[in-house]
C-alpha cells in the first residue's frame, strides 16, 4: 500500500502550518511545508540576480538547491539552503509575495513537483500548501481546506511575525494577504481551490485548540 497522506490547503495566514505541525507531531509523520519551497526558490532567484518574470531561469535554479529542514515539528526548525540557515528570510512577509509571483508559472511548479512528492515517506506525510490535495497528492486519504476572513488572517499573521521578532502594520498585512490570495486563486495552473473531495473548515471564529479538535475528529473518522 502507498504511504498515507493528509493534505492541508488554504490561503495565507489561515493556520495551515499550526494544524499540520500538530498533526505531524501527534502521528509521528513527516511534514511538507510546500510554501517554503516556493519561498526558497524565489529568494535563490533574487540572490542570483534573476528577474522573477524570467520563469524559465527561475525554474532552472530549482534542481541545484540543496534544501534541508532540521529540528522537530516546532516552528523553530532551521531551513538550510546550500549550507546556510535562511529561515528568517524565508519566513519574512515580503518573501511570500515573491513566492506567489513565481508560483503562477507552470515551469516553476513543474520544477518543484517531484521534490514535493519525495517527502512522501513512511509512516505518513502531512502536506500543507495550496495544491496539495488537487495536484501534488490527489490520492490523499484525507484532504482539509482551511478558510478564514482576510482580516482574521492578517491579525494572526501579525501575531506570528511579532513572535518571530518582526513587526508589521495590520492594514498593510491585510492588503498584502488579499493581493496574494487573489493572485493564487486566479492563476491558471494549480489555483487555490479546494479539491472536490476536501473537507472545508472555516476557522474565522475558532481558536487553534478548537481547530485542532475538529481536525483530530476528522482524522479519527478516517481510521
Ligand atoms: O504558504 P506560504 O505563504 O508559505 O506560500 C507562499 C506562496 O507560495 C503562496 O502565496 C503561493 O503563491 C505559493 N504556493 C503555491 N503552492 C503551494 C504552496 C505555496 O503556489 N503548494
Automatic annotation (TrEMBL):
Q: Which reaction does it catalyse?
A: dCMP + ATP = dCDP + ADP; CMP + ATP = CDP + ADP
- EC class of this enzyme? transferase
Q: Which InterPro entries match?
A: Cytidylate_kin, Cytidylate_kinase_dom, P-loop_NTPase
Which EC number(s) are documented for this chain?
A: 2.7.4.25
Record GO biological process: nucleobase-containing small molecule interconversion; pyrimidine nucleotide metabolic process
Its subcellular locations are: Cytoplasm
Q: What is its main location?
A: cytoplasm
Please name the Pfam families in this protein's record: Cytidylate_kin (PF02224)
The name this protein goes by in its record: Cytidylate kinase
State the species of origin.
Answer: Hydrocarboniphaga effusa AP103
At the highest ranks, the source species' classification is: Bacteria, Pseudomonadati, Pseudomonadota, Gammaproteobacteria, Nevskiales
Amino acid at each position: 500500500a502507498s504511504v498515507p497522506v493528509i493534505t492541508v490547503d488554504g490561503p495565507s495566514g489561515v493556520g495551515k502550518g499550526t494544524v499540520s505541525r500538530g498533526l505531524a507531531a501527534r502521528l509521528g509523520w513527516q511534514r511538507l511545508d510546500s510554501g517554503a519551497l516556493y519561498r526558497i526558490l524565489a529568494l535563490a532567484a533574487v540572490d542570483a540576480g534573476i528577474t522573477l518574470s524570467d520563469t524559465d531561469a527561475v525554474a532552472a535554479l530549482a534542481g541545484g538547491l540543496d534544501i534541508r529542514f532540521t529540528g522537530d515539528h516546532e516552528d523553530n526548525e532551521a531551513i538550510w539552503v546550500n549550507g546556510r540557515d535562511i529561515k528568517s528570510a524565508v519566513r519574512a512577509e515580503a518573501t511570500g509575495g515573491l513566492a506567489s509571483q513565481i508560483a503562477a508559472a507552470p515551469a516553476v511548479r513543474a520544477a518543484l513537483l517531484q521534490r514535493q512528492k519525495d517527502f512522501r515517506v513512511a509512516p505518513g506525510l502531512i502536506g500543507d500548501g495550496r495544491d496539495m490535495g488537487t495536484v501534488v497528492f490527489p490520492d490523499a486519504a484525507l484532504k482539509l481546506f482551511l478558510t478564514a476572513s482576510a482580516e482574521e488572517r492578517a491579525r494572526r499573521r501579525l501575531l506570528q511575525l511579532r513572535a518571530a521578532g518582526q513587526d508589521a502594520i495590520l492594514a498593510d498585512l491585510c492588503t498584502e494577504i488579499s493581493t496574494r490570495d487573489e493572485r493564487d486563486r486566479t492563476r491558471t495552473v494549480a489555483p487555490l481551490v479546494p479539491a472536490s473531495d476536501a473537507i472545508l473548515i472555516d476557522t474565522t471564529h475558532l481558536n487553534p485548540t478548537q481547530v485542532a479538535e475538529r481536525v483530530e475528529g476528522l482524522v479519527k473518522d478516517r481510521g
